[in-house]
Amino acid sequence: MPESDAPRTIESVENALGVLDELEARETVGVSELAEALDRSKGTVHTHLATLAKHGYVVNDDGRYRLSLRYLGLAEAAKSHVGSYDAVTRELDDLAATHGERAQFAVEEGGKAVYVYRATGSDAVNPSADIGRYEHLHSIGLGKAILSVLPEARVDAIVAEHGLPERTAETVTSREALAEELDRVRERGYAVDDEERVHGIRCVAMPLVTGESEPVGAMSVSGPASRMTDDRIQSEILPDLRQAVNVVEVNAELG
């Protein structure tokens, strides 16, 4: 989007959101630390913190600030926009327990994939839950699964807005290569992240589609490349992932 066509924004709101982003990355933080991280004056940062605290978005613990538990309520409200969320979490929990790996669910928002739920099995690597984190769609299995069921014009718009940045040497970085990859995903019904976002990690993902052919999101199982072999994906993981997706889609239609 040309700069002249970009929507106007409010600088004070931008600054407040910067404060919240920094608080999200830390357990607690003082005014001076936060001012330095944001390259803002202590007075400006303190004013933002005081305003956010007044409205219940942050908590002041003896001069150390943290996010408030109000975000739990906001998160629950956001989940209500995800159809069959309970079915999704049940199926992902079962996938993680059965295969010992990470099982994840993401939706598309603003042209990126946002992680909504993650279940970790007994052998899962990096089990931290990056819920709410946004990723470029083209560089993860979940994202490619979602792109495969979006209209071509929407895919073009997403690429035009966000580009195709390289995460590893395996990442698809051209529109032509992405089109070929999405054709493969449509043909076989699933996407594979072959160390395209993180070296050493492979992922297999399938889109969730409602009866109106609208993508709800995507579900995946991921793990170390040494364990996520083609044979294991085909014989063990894909049958269970297909069943999980089918259960969620049926629940969505019945709901």
TrEMBL record:
What SUPFAM superfamilies has UniProt attached to this entry? GAF domain-like, Winged helix' DNA-binding domain
Annotated GO MF terms: DNA binding; DNA-binding transcription factor activity
Family matches, as Pfam families: HTH_IclR, IclR_C
Q: Name one GO biological process term.
A: negative regulation of DNA-templated transcription
Identify the stretch annotated as signal peptide in this record. none
Q: Does the keyword DNA-binding apply?
A: yes
Highest taxon in the source lineage: Archaea
Q: Keywords of this protein's UniProt record, alphabetized?
A: DNA-binding, Transcription, Transcription regulation
Q: Give every IclR-ED domain span.
A: 70-254
* Domain HTH iclR-type: from-to ranges: 10-69
Q: Tell me what this protein is called.
A: IclR family transcriptional regulator
| Taxonomic source organism | Halocalculus aciditolerans
